[in-house]
Amino acid sequence: MRKDVVTGSARDFVAELSELQRRIRDAVRGQMAAQAREQWSRSARDDAGDTTFGIDVTAEDVLLPFCEAWGKKAPFVLIAEGLPPEGLTFGASAGSGTAFRLIVDPIDGTRGLMYDKRSAWCLAAVAPDRGPATCLSEIECAVMTELPTTRAGFADRLWAVRGRGANGEREGLLDGSTRPLSLVPSQRPDLLHGFATVVNFFQGGKELASLIDEEIVRRERGGWNPGKAEVYTDQYICSGGQLAELALGRDRFVLDVRPLLHQALGIDSSLCSRPYDLCTALIATEAGCVVTAPDGEPLRAPLDVVTNVAFAGYANAQLAARLQPMVTETLRRHGVL
């Protein structure tokens, strides 16, 4: 991370974000071990944003004290759900300003984890502080740590610094041992025998999303072979996790156009992926994936807690070049783009 943009070194930021996420992971695992599942999934708060469940509160209780301590070393603004829209400022004295913006999703994928079905992820990223206009495309460092189910023996951590590639490690949860984890996205230029998903996991626009899904895959495959299962879908309720699946070579394509679908259906306000859900997209792009807006433009959403973000993720540039025009044409044909 360039020192003229953000105070401190890239290594410092990766270390701080990794430690924050380790503490959140350990606190969540401790709660899951000590409490009944009904406590994890209870609705603790249902305000203007997403519903906050019992398991979310545990992660939130770690975040603010950690930022208080970090702010004594460097002043910054924290953006996270449940905080004031302008964020919280740590460590800055009157008129001193802040060096960077930290955007965090303590638990991305709460619904899968709170029923012990599937891992969630803790997401965090840093961008130079350019005020409220600071956007996703300006993030320079990102870290994400797996929040595993109670059955898991390992948990992954992925991180990236802009221009320096992406890295990963797998940690043993029993002995704390770590080993490198390679981020190698699929290099296939097509979807044959791969996972390709159009997000469709919540009520609202499911019919239209299914039509778009079918049409994109049919165009890419040149039709449908009813005697074969050639392309698969994975409705992973975790935007950061979906991008991790791309970076780790497990998925080839993901498309989330829920904000556009809802607009096409005349819905003015809805709950979709927010900037904190996509703050670790840098990890996927530094690994070699392509992550853009559905029309192929960069993701320019501001680092806030209210903006709905539509995105497309491709495992590699060749697949993106081939598939993106099909995505655009399909969305336009259905009056979505």
Brief synopsis:
Helix content is 32%, strand content 22%. The protein has 337 residues and is α+β, with helices and mostly antiparallel strands. The protein is globular.
Explain what this protein looks like in three dimensions.
This protein is of the alpha+beta class. The chain contains nine helices and 15 strands. A hairpin with a 6-residue loop joins β1 (43-45) and β2 (52-53). α5 packs across α9 (317-333). The model is unreliable at 1-7 (pLDDT under 50).
- Across the major sheet, the strand order is 4-3-5-6-7-8-9-10
Low-confidence stretches: 1-7
Mean pLDDT across residues: 91
Shape: globular
Oligomer: single chain
N-to-C span: 35 Å
Helix segment tally: 9
How big a fraction of the residues is strand?
A: 15-25%
| Computed Rg | 20 Å
Q: What string, H for helix and E for strand, traces the elements in order?
A: HHEEHEEEHEEEEEEHEHEHHEEH
Helix content: 25-40%
Number of strands: 15
Q: Major β-sheet, in short? A: 8 strands, mixed
- Estimated structural class: alpha+beta
Write the layout of secondary structure elements.
Blueprint: H1 10-34, H2 37-40, E1 43-45, E2 52-53, H3 54-71, E3 76-79, E4 88-90, E5 100-108, H4 110-114, E6 120-128, E7 141-147, E8 154-161, E9 166-172, E10 178-180, E11 194-198, H5 206-221, E12 231-232, H6 239-247, E13 253-256, H7 258-264, H8 281-287, E14 290-292, E15 311-314, H9 317-333
Parallel strand pairs: 3-5, 11-12, 11-13
Antiparallel strand pairs: 1-2, 3-4, 5-6, 6-7, 7-8, 8-9, 9-10, 13-15, 14-15
